[in-house]
């Protein structure tokens, strides 16, 4: 019996550990090495595996590439296979953010329509390390430093413990030819600069283990976040006295959760909003109401935080 290449075995093992016990699973596949290796492994390991490839329409020939990915998937035995064509016009944020929003909406829609129990995403250990570095550069708190979750709703990331080099080696071992997205080398994108310059510089200075260590740190921070969020979820008393008695890490999480319950959109609620709410408790000097996203205003009145509009 031919020996399975270690890279192929690593990807298959990661997928086997993540796959749900039953139900249709869809692989989100761009045709790049990470998602192509993921799709091949899911097809080998799983019994009920389909594929969705998203055409953002942002590059010349994108429709043809999406059709080629779909053709390969059908020949490989994945079923169902769908091409989702999206438009990023009018979506908020820059090109990357708009494309991401459109892509996740398309994948969610496909999962609902097809009755899938999960959608697999091809983010690797290297992607996680890049995410942590970008979060550090933004001055993000623990939520940002936790990186990408392995599980979020129907979305699963089985390869967060697999190196990008292994997905490339797996594709080569299986005779798969991945598509190289030119955006990944475009220095106008922050992630591309981190991938092409910042992370390699860290590896040169600190050794190759820095990538795994960054990803491991993200996982540890995510565990701490879950514990603190659980404690904050029990906080319902918005009186100043009760809030002031809490440890800052729990109080700010409780204020964040309360702002969401008031109707503030999560995507627009930033640390600056939470800091302003916290100042109503810890640095009170008669300041006016805090303006939250969604037209919500919160003030300190009668010894408590209350919504005033």
From TrEMBL:
Keyword presence, Nucleotide-binding: yes
Localization in the cell: Cytoplasm
UniProt catalytic activity: cytidine(34) in tRNA(Ile2) + L-lysine + ATP = lysidine(34) in tRNA(Ile2) + AMP + diphosphate + H(+)
UniProt superkingdom: Bacteria
Keyword tRNA processing tagged: yes
Pfam families: ATP_bind_3, TilS
Annotated EC: 6.3.4.19
Binding site for ATP: 30-35
Domain notes: The N-terminal region contains the highly conserved SGGXDS motif, predicted to be a P-loop motif involved in ATP binding.
Role summary: Ligates lysine onto the cytidine present at position 34 of the AUA codon-specific tRNA(Ile) that contains the anticodon CAU, in an ATP-dependent manner. Cytidine is converted to lysidine, thus changing the amino acid specificity of the tRNA from methionine to isoleucine.
NCBIfam families, sorted: lysidine_TilS_N (TIGR02432)
Protein name: tRNA(Ile)-lysidine synthase
Organism for this UniProt entry: Paractinoplanes deccanensis
